[in-house]
Amino acid sequence: xxxxxxxxxxxxxxxxxPVALAAxxxxxxxxxxxxxASEAGYVIQADEPPPPLPEYSQPPIPxxxxxxxxxxxxxxxxxxxxxxxxxxxxxxxxxxxxxxFWAFVGGVYAFSPxxxxxxxxxxxxxxxxxxxNGLGYQGGRWDSGRxxxxxxVNNIGAAHITNVYTQNVVNNxxxxxxxxxxxxxxxxxxxxxxELLAAKEPRVRATALQTGQARAAGMRSEQFVSTNRGKxxxxxxxxxxxxxxxxxxxxxxxxxxxxxxxxxxxxxPAETKEKPPIPGQPAPTLPANAPKPREKPSTVEKPSKLxxxxxxEEKPVEKAVRPEGAPNAPKAEEKRPAEKLAKxxxAPNAPKxxxxxxATEKPVRPEPTTGAQRAPEHPPAxxxxxPAxxxxxPAxxxxxPxxxxxxxxxxxxxxx
Length: 416
What we know:
This protein is mainly beta. Helices cover about 10% and strands about 15% of the residues. The protein contains 4 helices and 16 strands.
């Protein structure tokens, strides 16, 4: 019910407003131009942003000599309504159309009306489509008093037009349906040097057919955003004021403005990676309520409970005396096995027998030595235990030579 009352009030205001022929129906005005508009005069002013541009198709050109002007949202001081795009005849040869646009200026949304001029000026960087991609116009050009149409962006249809060329339009900007410049969610575009020069050139206001198109749209309830929810019933017409028949094209869908990505707020996510500090700058600190980052699992595998290493029991201060013959008894207290022969004591003037001689070998009987030779000393670390078996007999002295007889026949002479 609220939307019906609002639409009825908007229709009533549009019907009684005498200024509808000069601007989009009755509206607030201010003696200020939005950014990039240098024309002195009144512009439309609203306290809320215009809706996104709807999606629609271009109707075919009705005849040679017509020029395309895109649709836009108008304001009647109560509600927004859609003025359909339309094919119109320019006021004179050689002129190009600069579309009007909304801009956020001084805390309000101001509308700069479109105009005709020798060059296309600044229109807020709004992507109206069909050759108006936010910068200049790629839908056609004047040559020797004739307008040539770019078939890549214009719907030539069945019209008999010979001055046609094809040039693909490359759009390097992000395509969206935003309908205003500046402010929150608006298009961030500024006028170029060429556009500033074009603003200083002579200009011609919109024709009577163009203003009549805007006035007729303000009289139809289906064109108001409170009724169509951003999807107008008539989005474009082949001729001005042609809101019925084949020349009237409805919108395919309501426009969707590009959503601005809000800055991250709240707690820092747990998966935040620590960046290395920049030399010469203090290390960043996390908020007090930020959770601690999770530690990455170590690559070293931890033993399971079943495979856990046994705990080492501490030994008492007083060590228990191990019994003889224990496997861990000290080497000094080890007893030689019974099957091994005890090491014999070295005989005087006898060579040293190796200690590591196997027990199965027979002891070598020492050879007699001269008195000059002396066996090396054998400093045993510990006194050798007495052998279980008797030590071998000492070496026998060398036998004395037999006495020889002398003085007998055949014997040598006895010494004196």
